[in-house]
Design brief:
This protein is mostly helical. It is built from 15 helices and no strands.
Length: 294
């Protein structure tokens, strides 16, 4: 590792010298810095994949093992014996998928309404909505649990799906996108053609919102897929455990097989990576929408 750092430092010094001697050197140096940062960001994922193939004592070895081992089959056997991974995966898919669909529906309608319609108190209501984003999520845990108990939603996925399906950030996100990318003339033309407001939204506006849908969907997918605190409080039965709770149940005071834990973590992270790779184009389009004015 020390030798690798010395090599990187030497290459960086050479690139800095080149950047002063040649006009294209600055671009080369920039690309090198960006590639180096990308490698640093990917390193934890690579180490997780490597540790999923190692024994527990090999994971704790120093210097750390930087390449794949031969204990993958044994880790998979221990993981399947310790937890019901398919059941936890299915629970996470149900909770996350339902939550994302509802968030995209309600937040797009709310953001569209705040952007397009002029009604009394619109700005004040939107300011109150934004103010709720300043309240820490942990401050509402106790009232949230009391409400879920009154509703009878303890040990029920509805407690994780419904309360945050129209969140302030999602409405703010969709409102900003609608303001920058939805032409008013298109809506007026649809009204002249006799379209109802719902038809205008679903047939005219919704296709324009695809980049915003992708960006918000990915962010909500990651948040709900990794949700731990609320799931820990509300889900008591093991058959209802989502993936974060399943990973927690694998850690024991009497000894933990960290090779199996890392393999389970890998299985839990892969859907996030696949989701981002599939929607990355729309995600970047949604983030940069409205950044350049023509």
């Amino acid at each position: 590792m020390a030798k690798l750092l010395l090599v990187i430092a030497a290459v960086a010094a050479v690139l800095v010298i080149i950047s002063f001697l040649h006009p294209t050197g600055k671009k080369v140096s920039l690309y090198f810095v960006l590639c180096f940062i990308a490698l640093l960001m990917l390193l934890p994922f690579f180490m997780m994949f490597v540790m999923a193939t190692l024994k527990t004592n090999e994971i704790y070895s120093f210097p750390p093992i930087m390449w794949f081992g031969s204990n993958l089959a044994e880790n998979f056997k221990n993981m399947t014996a310790a937890v019901n991974l398919p059941r936890a995966f299915l629970n996470s898919v149900i909770v996350t998928g339902s939550h994302v669909v509802l968030v995209l529906f309600f937040c797009s309608i709310g953001g569209y309404a705040f952007s397009v319609y002029d009604f009394p108190g619109r700005n004040k209501l939107f300011a109150i909505l934004l103010a709720t984003m300043m309240i820490p999520a942990t401050a509402g845990i106790i009232p949230w649990f009391i409400m879920m108990s009154k509703f009878g939603w303890v040990n029920d996925f509805k407690a994780l799906i419904i309360p945050s399906c129209a969140n302030a950030f999602g409405i703010f996100w969709m409102r900003q996108y609608c303001q920058n990318n939805v032409p008013r003339s298109l809506m007026e033309a649809a009204r002249i053609d006799g379209c109802s407001e719902w038809t205008i939204f679903f047939r005219v506006i919704a296709p324009i919102l695809k980049p915003a849908y992708a960006s918000l969907g990915i962010m909500q997918f990651v948040n709900m897929w990794n949700e731990f605190m609320q799931a820990l409080i509300i889900l008591r039965k093991e058959k209802l455990y989502t993936l974060p709770l399943m990973l927690r149940s694998m850690v024991s005071d009497r000894g933990t097989d960290y090779g199996a834990v890392m393999l389970a973590s890998t299985c839990a992270v892969l859907p996030l990576l696949i989701c981002f790779l599939c929607a990355s184009k729309f995600f970047m389009d949604g983030l940069t929408a409205g950044a350049v004015k023509e």
